[in-house]
Amino acid sequence: MTEKRRNTGVPLNISNFKRVSPTQRLNLIKCPACEYTRKLKEVAPIDECPQCGIHYTKHKMESEAASIENSKDIPTEIINKTPRAESEGILNSVPKVTVAEQAISSEISKDENDSRMVIADKLDVGNCFDNSWKIYSTNFLMLMVTSFVGTFIMIFSLFILAGPVMGGYASMLLRCIRSKEKKIRFSDMFSQLDKSVPLCLLFFVPLFLVIFGVLILPHFVPSIVLVLIYFGVIISIGILIYQYTFIELIEHDLWPTESIKGGFRILIEGGIGRNILLYLSVLGISSLGYYDYIGWILSFIITPLVSLLYVFAYLQVAPQDDSEYLNFKAHTLVDNPIPN
User: Fold this and answer.
1) H or E element: which one contains 292?
2) Residue ranges of domains in the chain
3) Model confidence over 29-57: pLDDT tens digits?
């Protein structure tokens, strides 16, 4: 026995439907295929259109009616039907991913055939190594060239241009990571020459402070062991902060003092323990550069990988837009205790 279809509704076209009052509009429901319109109370939880015969859910139609009221317009898309939905008499719509949701997911992808690089929410040393190796392996030759040229410029300029070169190198890596092609561009290494003054200050001031401490402190502390322990701890923490300061300066156009504060905040937010683990990993890799005869060659190979590790560590912890950065900058240690 075939079920007799109900025909209690009145088909309305789009122009007529737009002229319906907001109150009436919420009480009407449209078929997603043929736009046959009838009253909402006449629709069962899973119902069949009297005109075209397709099935749809009342809950889905109520959601669309509410969205029509909010937007004061009619959605033009037709709900997608899958083979399974048609066989079971239920329509399923494919969820849309908004731009905000894509930003929150923080996934960096190149193609369908390429492996993805995912940025974690907090400092993850394993994630840093995975993502760094993907960039390093695909840009090995260009990274070697830029590392050699950068070292040559620093030595030839008696380290006067060390700050701009280090800032430009970090900027080059950031642009590579954020680009769709994930390719190193040689010209990006010289993109921070307009910030030469703050970058030079950022390079030389901490260096002079360390040299001053090495020369002066032994005269006030009698035990050489205490001096070595003191400098071991201070220099280690200083290196951890120092690795982030160049990126912080070029990212937000800061003065050296502000970028050092930003580096310290990133150290705290990422977790001191995790940063120390990253630092020890970097020390283990860098120790390969101390071999006789081949150490200077290995240093050119190691330096880009170490730089990539710190850039990815920065991207995991630091905010990536101005509004987030202002909130991040206002944080204090009282409001943000040291994470485990």
Assistant:
1) none
2) 14-88, 107-330
3) 677 777 777 765 555 555 667 777 666 55
